[in-house]
Specification:
The chain is α/β, with parallel strands linked by helices and 183 residues long. Helices cover 26% and strands 20% of the residues. The strands form two sheets. The protein has a five-stranded mixed β-sheet, with helices on both faces. Strands 1-2-3 form a three-stranded antiparallel β-sheet, covered by helices on one side.
Length: 183
């Protein structure tokens, strides 16, 4: 009985081997791809200009005293530029004038959008301030500071040339980054 099973298995194996080996490995298609049609036959060349992504700005957390940006504590209102942080000399949204944004339009490469955080509430900026930025080709997004921080992080993650002008929210408002949050 065992010999019959072995003999039957050998007969099936010999029948399968009669087929050409290429027929066993290649799935049947309605047409044959030529080297020009198939990406497997084409060569791709990649030039690597920079091995690591450049250090981008990221707001880790905020509180009523200031911000934590890339692990560095910044006290009070601040202006975030693509690769640096500076103190912003304003107290409230009412102190924001056209010259408050002069740093943003002097930079190269040109800032695409400035995200303004006005504290714990979204406040209107003076129309002449918004008009001055618009004339210089800079978009403005005015939000409360918690949403402005999230928007800035999102735009930087997308690779946009973004700036932020942030006023810390008053009171006990505080956001701790996910890396520091207790489980």
């Amino acid at each position: 009985m065992v010999a019959a099973f072995v003999l039957r298995g050998l007969c099936r194996a010999q029948a399968a081997l009669r087929c050409a080996p290429a027929e066993l490995l290649v799935p049947r298609r309605g047409h044959r791809l030529t080297p020009a049609d198939d990406e497997l036959y084409q060569r791709t060349r990649i030039s690597l200009l920079q091995r690591e992504s450049p250090q981008s700005m990221y707001i880790d957390s905020y509180s009523s005293r200031g911000f934590m940006v890339n692990g560095n504590r910044v006290l009070g209102p601040c202006a975030l530029l693509p690769h640096s942080v500076v103190q912003w000399n304003v107290g409230t949204h009412r102190d924001i004038i056209e010259e408050s944004f002069s740093l943003f339009w002097l930079l190269e490469p040109r800032i695409e959008i400035v995200v303004v955080g006005t504290g714990d509430r979204t406040e209107r900026l003076q129309p002449q301030v918004l008009q001055a930025l618009k004339q210089r080709g800079i978009a403005v997004e005015v939000q409360d500071t918690p949403n402005a921080c999230a928007t800035f992080n999102f735009l930087c993650h997308e690779g946009r040339v973004t700036g932020a002008a942030l006023i810390p929210p008053p009171g006990g408002t505080m956001l701790t980054s996910l890396a520091q949050a207790p489980e």
